[in-house]
Design brief:
It is a single chain. This protein has 170 residues and is of the alpha/beta class. It has one domain (20-169): TPP-binding domain (Rossmann fold). Helices cover 34% and strands 14% of the residues. The protein has a seven-stranded parallel beta sheet with strand order 1-7-6-5-2-3-4, sandwiched between helices. The two termini are 15 Å apart.
Length: 170
C-alpha cells in the first residue's frame, strides 16, 4: 500500500480548514460511495503518457469527466464521457446549487482533481472550500491544502503507484 499521507508541506498560507491527507484506497472507496462524483482533469496530463493512461482508466470506471484547458485532447477517440469546460467557470457553476451538471442530470456531490498546476488549482479549491458544501479530493502529485482530502507531496513514480492503487480500488 502506498502511503500518500506523509509530506504535507504547505507552500501558501494555512486557512482555518486544511485538507486531510488520504491514502489511495480510502479515496477510491469514498468516490465509489458518492452519489454523483465528477473527475476534473487538468492540462498536466497532456504530454505525460502515464498520467494520460491513469486519467483514462479512472474515467472508464464510470466517472464523468470535466476536461479543462486542452486536456480534452487526450480523451479523443477513447470512449470516455468527457466534456470540455474552463476550470474557473466550472468552479463558478459548482457553487450554484441549481446547476444540473455538465450533462443536465443533477448536481455533483464529490469532485476529484487530477493533472492541474498547484498554484492554479489551489485558488479553485479555495473557492469551493469556502463557498460550497462540496467534498473535494485531490489525487494530485502535490498536497492541495484547500481540498477536503488530498494526497501528500509525492515523487512522480510514487504518484503513479498511488494512482494504480486508487484505480484498483474504484
Amino acid at each position: 500500500m502506498v502511503d500518500t499521507t506523509k509530506n504535507t508541506l504547505v507552500y501558501t498560507t494555512w486557512g482555518r480548514k486544511t485538507a486531510k491527507p488520504v491514502n489511495p484506497n480510502v479515496a477510491a472507496k469514498m468516490i465509489s460511495k458518492a452519489k454523483r462524483p465528477l473527475l476534473v482533469i487538468g492540462t498536466e496530463v497532456v504530454g505525460n503518457e502515464q498520467l494520460t493512461e491513469k486519467a483514462i482508466a479512472i474515467a472508464k470506471k464510470g466517472l464523468p469527466v470535466a476536461a479543462t484547458g486542452h486536456s480534452i485532447t487526450v480523451f479523443k477517440g477513447m470512449d470516455v464521457n468527457a466534456k470540455y469546460i474552463n476550470v474557473h467557470a466550472l468552479a463558478h457553476y459548482l457553487g450554484d446549487k441549481n446547476w444540473k451538471g455538465l450533462d443536465g442530470q443533477d448536481t455533483y456531490d464529490m469532485i476529484v482533481f487530477l493533472g492541474h498546476k498547484k498554484y492554479y488549482l489551489d485558488q479553485v479549491l479555495s473557492g469551493l472550500k469556502n463557498f460550497t458544501d462540496l467534498k473535494t479530493i485531490a489525487i494530485e502529485r502535490h498536497f492541495m491544502q484547500n481540498a477536503t482530502l488530498s494526497f501528500g507531496n509525492l515523487k512522480p513514480e510514487v504518484h503513479i503507484e498511488a494512482l494504480n492503487e486508487f484505480i484498483e480500488n474504484l
